[in-house]
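Blinded run. Sample ID left blank on purpose so nobody reads anything into the name before looking at the predicted structure. Input follows.
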Amino acid sequence: MSPDKMLYGLFDFARDQLTPPPGYEWAPFAIMAAVTLVGLLVLLRGARWAPGLAALAFVGIGGGAGVALARAVGTPQWPTVAVTAVVGGVLGVALFRFWQARVLATCSVLAAFSVYYVRTLTVPVDNWWSASADPNFVSLDPAGTVVGEARTTAWVRLQELWSYLVEHVPGFTGHVWMILLIAGIGGLVIGLLLPRLSRALWAATLGTLLAGVGVAALLHDFLPAALDWFLADNTRAWAIVAGVWAVSVVVNFLSAGKRKAGRRPRPAKPEPEPATA
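Blinded prediction complete.
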């Protein structure tokens, strides 16, 4: 499946499966606008704000874990959430270098798999999509599937796609494992050895992804002609995305190296020499 068909397919799937409740029709647009804003901020300042963003993320993760822990062991909810949020924030700051290396490893895997998809999987995925959209195509859900449940349906579709690719793409499983190992380990090593470059790379990648998804979703609803123009030429589209990513890498790399200039200490005044008789 070409990138434009995949993007439009994802939009249609999200619209069908994630319909907001009555009175909240504005929510998808607000969410996409927020995603776009966050993406732009990460594109420009993600590397500089990386420690703070990591701390906030782990505070949120710790707070969510605290809710589950309080329900599981029966402790008071808000004190438990406060303790786990503080612990999460401390872990986020103390192990920041390790977490950012993990993020860069994930970005490296996504980038490598994107290249593999464009070069190898476009036609097989397009064939699977066309066959599954055929009204004569019959697929039985696995045992235990709840009919009408959106999350289960999405998971079943992913399982069907995986089985199809394993059967029709030579060496698919081996290539996926190779991407996970080589790109993941390479990103992890770079993240640990070159932290400043790591910040710039993952900030540019994450920012490009968030801003790209948000802008595409907003254009899809408000300016579909602009999105059609962008996706009409894959070479032009990828060149624009690569240009935004490259500029963001440079901006974030330079930003991550800046330090606030402190006042220089005044030179000590020379002590007067003792008078000689």
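Unblinding after everyone has recorded impressions. DSSP finds ten helices and no strands in the chain.
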